[in-house]
């Protein structure tokens, strides 16, 4: 697979400069190191992936939108206002009862920023990038996702242009749910393919 140019791993020098700037700001008392971690978490797991979750929930409730999304990911995602760097060439992969899709960038850490935010550290790390291609079922199981043997696992390696988004299956029992409520159960990992959306079992009321 072609794999050159516009990857997201920053060269060492900018990374060092950022680290130096952060240290200086912390030292001068201008920022709190906890605030930096908080901001990173915000873009990794809270702000970023909420956009992708809105795309998924919309596709779940609107079959015509879903069709457009699968035919032209970039255009359909832009309909909801999510565009920009690392989202210029989006391909949406539909999970079905027969096929489970999972996304990786084996060479670096290509990731669809407009819909998922910043990639988490495990996605950027060598073990995930090398092993998911070789033994996807085992890696998924270690991440807590057992894919039944009759379901085919497809691993998609991001290339220089394409960024993938997994469209997970809508869980049973959510037929009456609003789009907003549906979006709330679409996790970042379910759009990378390392998890699936789950309906939380309602806790039994405590009688004691
Ligand atoms: Fe890459």
Protein model, in words:
The mean pLDDT is 89. It is globular, with a radius of gyration of 19 Å. The protein has 11 helices and 4 strands, in the order αααααββααααββαα. It has helices spanning 12-27, 33-46, 48-61, 63-71, 73-79, 113-116, 121-124, 126-134, 136-142, 179-184, 188-192, and strands at residues 90-94, 99-104, 152-157, 163-167. The chain has a two-stranded parallel ribbon with strand order 1-4. Strands 2-3 form a two-stranded parallel ribbon. Helix 3 packs across helix 4 (63-71), helix 4 crosses helix 5 and helix 8 (126-134) packs across helix 9 (136-142). It has one domain: Alpha-Beta Complex (Nitrile Hydratase, Chain A). With 208 residues, it is mainly α. Fe (iii) ion binds at residues 7, 105, 107-108, 110, 158.
């Amino acid at each position: 697979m072609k794999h050159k140019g516009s990857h997201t791993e920053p060269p060492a020098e900018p990374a060092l400069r950022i680290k130096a700037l952060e240290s200086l700001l912390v030292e001068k008392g201008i920022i709190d190191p906890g605030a930096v971690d908080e901001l990173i978490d915000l873009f990794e797991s809270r702000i970023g992936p909420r956009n992708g979750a809105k795309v998924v929930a919309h596709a779940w409730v609107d079959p015509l939108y879903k069709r457009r999304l699968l035919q032209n990911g970039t255009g359909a995602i832009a309909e909801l206002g999510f565009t920009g760097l690392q989202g210029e060439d989006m391909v949406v992969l539909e999970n079905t009862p027969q096929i489970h899709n999972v996304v990786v960038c084996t060479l670096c850490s290509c990731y669809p920023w407009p819909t998922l935010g910043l990639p988490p550290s495990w996605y950027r790390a060598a073990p995930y990038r090398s092993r998911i291609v070789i033994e996807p079922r085992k890696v998924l199981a270690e991440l807590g996702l057992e894919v039944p043997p009759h379901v085919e696992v497809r691993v998609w390696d991001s290339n220089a242009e394409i960024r993938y988004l997994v469209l997970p299956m809508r869980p049973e029992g959510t037929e009456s749910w609003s789009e907003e409520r549906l979006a709330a159960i679409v996790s970042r990992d379910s759009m990378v393919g390392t998890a699936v959306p789950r309906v939380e079992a309602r806790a039994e009321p405590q009688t004691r």
